[in-house]
Design a protein that fits this description.
- With about 300 residues, this protein is α/β, with parallel strands linked by helices.
- Helix 4 links the parallel strand 4 and strand 5.
- The protein has ten helices and 14 strands.
- The strands form four sheets. A six-stranded parallel β-sheet has the order 3-2-1-4-5-6, sandwiched between helices. A three-stranded antiparallel β-sheet has the order 7-10-11.
- The radius of gyration is 19 Å and the shape is globular.
- The termini are far apart.
- The structure holds adenosine-5-diphosphoribose.
- The site of adenosine-5-diphosphoribose (APR) has 28 residues, from helix 1 and helix 4.
Length: about 300
């Protein structure tokens, strides 16, 4: 059986966990690449040692050389410094921008036809930067943020309602940060909109839990930021792409007039397939939701401008 080739740049907590899930789900042969070559090779070897127990089909290897990533179908970029307690994602701006510059210089020439998924924070700003630097078409350069925020919103809804995870469809759009926009009207429990299921106060509680979800993990860990749910969100996007699913997920995508927003990357629902981003889905937002989304875009544009 031949598998797609997925390179994961950054063999840290997020990257290695994503590699693990891609193997367990039999989705792709994985190459882990890191400036710390031994880390990438060591984690890949450790993961391969699982193979006879878990019986997965694909393989994983580690490297420090972009030549080994050549002709990947998908490149996932998780290289970067994670948050520490008290830091916002924006505090990571300059250091991670330099890392993203280095990654693009190595990964894009090696896999010019790949679909790139950026994960490094602050996500929206890094994805905007990557688009400008890489010359890749917007269909093949997206970011992971909305799937994760949506998963955290769904968890908060499950906690509040007691509903089974499988009966909840949630949706969060906008910036991957404090300015994210959870959409209760477009989130359902057993098919009913959240606005019919919970009162305004409880909705406020679950919205706050989604927005604060990442920070809550950072506060508890004390040494870094979340990685299992981010890895699971990466795997969901990779799966949607490699299976040509046409599935709609909230991803960081370049807007060109959709929602009255132009020339900025932010999280919106979009259909994914083997060509990458197939189409941004335009929801029928009300005036308040639209204003929140546009305010979210303004915060991203300000950070992008600050980066120069
Ligand atoms: N090229 C390749 N790898 C790099 C580079 C680079 N230029 N710079 C740093 N790295 C690697 C580090 O060596 C480290 O192994 O990136 C890895 C990051 O791993 P962690 O420190 O464990 O961070 P992690 O929790 O995985 O988060 C990575 O994802 O969610 C975001 O905010 C998070 O931006 C952070 C990124």
């Amino acid at each position: 059986m031949s598998y797609p080739k997925v390179t994961i740049v950054g063999a840290g907590n997020v990257g290695a966990s994503a590699g693990l899930l891609l193997l367990l789900k039999n989705l792709a042969n994985v190459v882990l690449i890191d400036v710390a070559e031994g880390l990438a090779r060591g984690k890949a070897l450790d993961l391969m040692h699982m193979r006879s127990n878990e019986k997965f089909g694909p393989t994983i290897s580690g490297t420090g050389d972009y030549a080994d990533t050549a002709d990947s179908d998908i490149v996932v970029v998780t290289a970067g410094v994670p948050r520490k307690p008290g830091m916002t994602r924006e505090d990571l701006l300059d250091v991670n921008a330099n890392i993203v510059r280095q990654v693009i210089a190595g990964a894009v020439p090696a896999s010019p036809n790949a679909i790139f998924i950026f994960v490094t924070n602050p996500l929206d700003v890094m994805t905007n930067l990557a688009y400008k630097l890489s010359g890749l078409p917007k269909e093949r350069l997206i970011g992971m943020g909305g799937v994760l925020d949506t998963a955290r919103f769904a968890y908060a809804i499950a906690q509040q309602t007691g509903a089974a995870p499988g009966s909840i469809e949630a949706l969060v759009v906008g910036a991957h940060g404090e300015a994210m926009v959870p959409l209760p009207r477009f989130s359902t429990v057993n098919g009913s909109p959240l606005t019919d299921v919970l009162d305004a106060e409880k909705i406020e509680t679950v919205v706050r839990a989604a927005v604060q979800g990442g920070a809550a993990v950072v506060e508890l860990l004390q040494t870094g930021s979340a990685f299992y749910a981010p890895a699971s969100s990466i795997a969901a996007m990779v799966e949607a792409i490699v299976t040509n699913s046409d599935k709609t997920l909230s991803v960081c995508a370049k807007l060109e007039g959709e929602y009255g927003i132009d020339d900025v990357y932010m999280c919106v629902p979009a259909r994914l397939g083997t060509s990458g981003l197939q189409q941004v889905v335009e929801l029928d937002l009300n005036a308040k939701e639209l204003a929140q989304l546009q305010a979210s875009a303004t915060t991203i544009q300000a950070s992008v401008a600050a980066l120069g």
